[in-house]
Amino acid sequence: MFGLLRMDWRSAGSILDGSSLRSGFEPGALRSREIPPFFFTANAQRGNICKKDNGLFPHDQYCDYYYECQNGNSKEVACPNGLAFAGKAKGLIQNCDYPHRVGCPGNDGSIMGQAPIGTDNCPWLYGVFAHQTSCTRYWQCWNGTATIQQCPFSLLYNDALHSCDWPDNVPDCQKHPICKDQPNGHIPIEKSCGRFWLCVGGYPRLQRCPAGLAFSPTGLRCELSQNVPGCEPPIQCDLLRDLHLYKSLCEKRCVYPNNKRLYCFISKDLEFDQEFNGTKTQLNKRFLVGCDI
Question: In terms of residue numbers, what domain contains 108?
Answer without folding.
Answer: 49-115
